[in-house]
Write a structure and sequence with these properties.
GO terms for molecular function: RNA binding. It holds the Pfam family RRM_1. This is RNA-binding protein. Keywords: RNA-binding. The protein is α+β, with helices and mostly antiparallel strands and about 100 residues long. The chain has one domain: Alpha-Beta Plaits, CATH 3.30.70. It has two helices and six strands; from the N terminus they run E-H-E-E-H-E-E-E. The protein has a four-stranded antiparallel β-sheet. Strand 4 and strand 5 form a beta hairpin. The longest helix has 11 residues. The radius of gyration is 15 Å and the shape is globular. The chain starts with a strand and ends in an 18-residue tail after the last strand.
Length: about 100
């Protein structure tokens, strides 16, 4: 069964292909998704990698979490389903 990983700290110029190449070293990659800002079209610096199995996912975490990738330190862990995230806390104030 595939496992989805959260990848934080991505360099903003990282492409899907570069990320896939890096994670293929740990096992079969099912999909890659780098999150993009909808207004600027620029990377938001994080994304998701879906590994084909648990073994590949664990190997990818061991291989990349806390390690440097293109000059930035990555955070790699198992992605949490949307329902498990804490609710967003709004201060009611807007930044200018």
């Amino acid at each position: 069964m595939s496992k989805r990983l959260y990848i934080g700290g991505l360099p903003y110029k990282t492409t899907d292909e570069e990320l896939k190449e890096a994670f293929l070293k740990a096992g079969e990659v099912v999909s890659i998704s780098i999150m993009m800002d909808k207004f600027t079209g620029r990377s938001r610096g994080f994304g998701f990698v879906e590994m084909a199995d648990d073994e590949g996912a664990e190997k990818a975490i061991d291989m990349w979490n806390g390690k440097e990738f293109a000059g930035r330190t990555l955070v790699v862990n198992e992605a949490k389903p949307l329902g498990e995230r804490p609710p967003h806390q709004s201060t009611g104030q807007f930044r200018r």
